[in-house]
From TrEMBL:
Tetramer of two alpha and two beta subunits. Keywords: Aminoacyl-tRNA synthetase, ATP-binding, Cytoplasm, Ligase, Magnesium, Metal-binding, Nucleotide-binding, Protein biosynthesis, RNA-binding, tRNA-binding. Its EC number is 6.1.1.20. It is found in: Cytoplasm. Residues 42-157 form the TRNA-binding domain. It comes from Limosilactobacillus coleohominis. This is Phenylalanine--tRNA ligase beta subunit. PANTHER family: PHENYLALANINE--TRNA LIGASE BETA SUBUNIT, PHENYLALANYL-TRNA SYNTHETASE BETA CHAIN AND LEUCINE-RICH REPEAT-CONTAINING PROTEIN 47. Pfam families: B3_4, B5, FDX-ACB, tRNA_bind, tRNA_synthFbeta. Residues 716-809 form the FDX-ACB domain. Its cofactor is Mg(2+).
Length: 809
């Protein structure tokens, strides 16, 4: 909320006590709410004064400009060329003199405009720093006219409220009471122990008119609007608000509209109580009902947009037609305009949860909905309504009908909380006496009753709905006593050695392993579309992903069931920016619905690579990644994770988003733990990416799997012996089949098996292929003998021939 220092000073003697805006903001930040900024609207501006247009004639060489003679002091008149359509003689205006600084640090210089001398500039509000959102619409395309009593030559800042200081507070959800001047005054009065001079105005009613004869109100369900009250004001004259009221609004970031709307916004800022005004004569009838909307029911809101409603929304109706979205925005059909003569004022407390949901779903967040969401002070609902009626009488000439029409009302009683002085000091770690505690609650205007030397009962007023427990009162005592006054002590606790758990160590090692192989970590959204959430599943399921009731966008509506789709989005992002070589991995959770109330969360790790892992250099040409390169990364990763079981890669064609001839399931001891392969060209086209290879592993299963013991092995000092073997085998025989036999039958001294050649084609029988291997033998404790190697090699040849029908070439 943008809080005006001058408005606060009207009710608290801040300046009188030497409390400057910066100090005030610092105190608020340390005691109540966060502060975004402290600034003055005049910051960075200079040499901007009040001028008087004595003469205004058309520019001789322009069809829209005027040459003005502007008096800037009792004895000086300057000529200024102005292009504003509303410039005219006899008006006091904003003048930026030669050398002035206006908005965006623009410097004004003396010069000629189409041949005519111009010694300055006549300014619109936007040109001296006012936002387009708050500058009054009547002056959108023209300059601003100052009041007739403005003194020529004076700075314009005091006349426009620009000499004020604005403290922009960041109010947390629990301190909704601070979204008003009333709440800020109460808090600052307690913080500084200053007299609270807040003033409310009592309304004078017209005894000839009874409001209950003119309108009725009803709330269909108690929970929709625990409090709902109306007043009727007749013979209202719509006009521009006085300047003091406009200043209050635009310094708070609200655009002035007309006196009726401005008064409701003024009351909203002053009390934190949103009000809504209906044009009495535009209502189809005068029986007001607050009810749930009907599914599909429609209303055109004040912003001109037609809204389709849902059954959980709240509407204010007349003749069963929606006139307003309760607590969110009024309707176009009943809005106050220049022809309005009778106004119905609404003051209420609407269900905060329902208001929040409808405002978020319809993207209609407003100053009113923000306050309804955080809570309304029940003590000032009627006070705010009465003061708004008072100002409508004072500023719009209205006649206030007698009585308040009540659709619903509830008592919001105060509640008592018992505190122990010993407990207070134990919790805060301080030594506060009972007199100090009593003084703090007196400053807060909380009634107290001391039971004995240790016990005190505190009565919490309804305006502080954030306080319900003793702990809340401990916080009030601490912040007003001063956090700096509480002694700093180390907590008493047992000493435990820090460190990571075994699981945390494995997760960190997992990331380090992939980074060591050249992959960069990516962090993707856990939310995606429904279709992409169902792609790239390790185990195929027919279930729908968990969907959000209120997604932030159409691209983030469901929880992910895989990580690969997020990595493909990252590759598309990089590729669109001409980054061709991308190697990414991500480690995180996926959410698999298993029929319970909540989905099962599984830790997964996935990778995606496109382009080349090694860039071109002067002596090496980059090579595009392929299936086997990525398979090597996965194998090395599983080896680094010390997985003890048998790992197999089995060809798979079941995933429609993966290439059917270049995809394999990854099995650990026969159990599916992941997949690897190329993204199907059609899927790659959908994601707008080039040829890409991916893998995804269920890290939860890997962490639970048995691991190898890690121990140091000496490098043998004895020589290796190698033997080459070439085999003619059937096309259906795989490398894995051959390796399994060689490793099983190769003997104790077999150290390594390397496939160095594969051939199929001419000079070989149909349905056959040739595969050649190098077998390496080594004894760690002595030199191998020729006959020992020959015996082991012969045994391998025999079993390959017997079990696979291989022909030794």
């Amino acid at each position: 909320m943008k809080v005006s220092y001058q408005w606060l000073d009207k009710y608290l003697p801040l300046e009188q006590n030497g409390i400057k805006p910066a100090e005030l903001a610092e105190k608020l930040a340390r005691t109540s709410v966060d502060i975004n900024s402290v600034s003055s609207p005049s910051d960075g501006l200079k040499k901007i004064i009040v001028g008087y247009v004595e003469e205004c004639v058309p520019h001789p060489d322009s069809d829209h400009m005027h040459v003005c003679q502007v008096k800037i002091s009792d004895d000086e008149t300057v000529q200024i060329v102005c292009g504003a359509p509303n410039v005219q003689a006899g008006k006091k205006v904003i003048v930026a003199l030669h050398g002035a600084r206006i908005a965006d640090n623009v410097k004004i210089k003396r010069g000629k405009i189409r041949g005519e001398e111009s010694d300055g500039m006549l300014c619109a509000l936007q040109e001296i720093g006012f936002s387009e959102k708050i500058a009054p619409k009547d002056y959108e395309e023209g300059i601003w006219f100052l009041p007739d009593d403005a003194k020529i030559g004076d700075s314009v800042f005091p006349y426009l409220g620009m000499d004020d200081t604005i403290i922009d507070t960041d109010v947390t959800p629990n301190r909704g009471d601070m979204l008003s001047i009333y709440g800020n005054i109460n808090d600052l009065s307690a913080i500084y122990d200053l007299p609270n001079n807040f003033v409310s105005h009592e309304v004078t009613e017209n005894a000839d008119d009874q409001a209950s004869d003119m309108i009725s109100a009803k709330v269909a369900e108690d929970e929709l609007a625990p409090v709902y009250k109306l007043r009727v004001i007749k013979n209202v004259k719509i006009a521009e608000s006085p300047l003091w009221l406009q200043i209050r609004l635009w310094n708070s970031g609200i655009r002035p509209i007309n006196n009726v709307v401005d008064i409701t916004n003024y009351i909203l800022l002053k009390y934190g109580q949103p009000l809504h005004s209906f044009d009495y004569d535009k209502l189809p009838n005068h029986d007001i009902l607050v009810r749930h909307a009907r599914e599909g029911e429609k209303i055109t809101t004040l912003d001109g947009n037609e809204q389709e409603l849902k059954a959980q929304d709240i509407v204010v109706t007349a003749d069963d037609r929606p006139m307003a979205l309760a607590g969110t925005m009024g309707g176009e059909d009943s809005k106050v305009d220049d022809h309005t003569t009778t106004v119905v004022l609404e003051s209420a407390i609407f269900n905060s949860v329902m208001v929040r949901k409808q405002a978020r779903r319809l993207d209609l967040h407003s100053e009113s909905s923000m306050r309804f969401e955080r809570g309304i002070n029940p003590e000032t609902v009627e006070t705010a309504l009465n003061e708004a009626a008072y100002w409508l009488k004072e500023l719009a000439g209205g006649e206030v009908a007698k009585g308040i029409v009540t659709g619903n009302d509830h008592d919001y009683p105060t509640h008592d909380i018992e505190l122990s002085l010993n407990k207070i000091n134990a919790v805060l770690g301080a030594d506060i006496d009972m007199a100090t505690v009593q003084n703090i609650f007196d400053r807060l205007a909380f009634q107290t009753a001391q039971q004995d030397d240790d016990k005190i009962v505190v009565t919490v007023p309804a305006r502080r709905w954030d306080i319900s427990l003793p702990a809340d009162l401990y916080e009030e005592i601490a912040r007003l006593y001063g956090y700096d006054n509480i002694p700093s002590t180390l907590p008493v606790m047992t000493r435990n050695l820090g460190g990571l758990t075994p699981r945390q160590k494995k997760l960190r090692a997992s990331r380090h392993a992939l980074e060591g192989m050249g992959l960069n970590q990516a962090i993707s959204y856990s939310l995606t579309t429904v279709d992409r959430a169902k792609q790239f599943e390790i185990e195929a399921t027919d279930v729908e992903p968990m969907k959000l009731d209120y997604p932030m966008s159409s691209d983030h509506v469901a929880t992910r069931m895989n990580i690969v789709s997020g990595l493909l989005n990252d590759i598309a992002y990089n590729n669109a920016r001409k980054v061709e070589n991308v190697a990414l991995y991500e480690q995180g959770r996926v959410f698999i619905p298993k029929g319970g109330e909540r989905p099962e969360e599984q830790e997964h790790v996935a990778g995606a690579v496109t382009g080349s892992l090694v860039a071109d250099s002067w002596n090496t040409k980059g090579q595009s990644v392929d299936f086997y390169q990525l398979k090597g990364i996965v194998e090395r990763y599983l080896n680094n994770m010390a997985v003890a079981g048998k790992v197999e890669f089995v060809a798979d064609q079941s995933r429609p988003e993966m290439h059917p001839g270049r995809t394999a399931n990854i099995l650990l001891d026969g159990q599916l733990i992941g997949f690897i392969g190329q993204v199907h060209p059609n899927t790659a086209k959908e994601y707008k990416i080039p040829e890409t290879y991916v893998f995804e592993l269920n890290l939860k299963e890997l962490l639970a799997a048995d691991t190898r013991d890690k121990h140091y092995e000496h490098i043998s000092k004895y020589p290796e012996v190698t033997r080459d073997i070439a085999l003619l085998v059937d096309d259906t025989v795989t490398n894995a089949d051959i390796l399994a036999i060689i490793n099983r039958r190769g003997g104790a001294f077999l150290k390594d098996v390397h496939l160095f050649d594969v051939y199929a084609g001419s000079h070989l029988p149909k349905g056959k292929k040739s595969m050649a291997y190098t077998l390496t033998y080594q004894d760690d404790h002595g030199t191998l003998k020729e006959e020992t190697v020959n015996q082991a090699f012969a045994k391998v040849e025999k079993h390959l021939t017997d079990e696979l029908g291989a022909e030794i070439r």
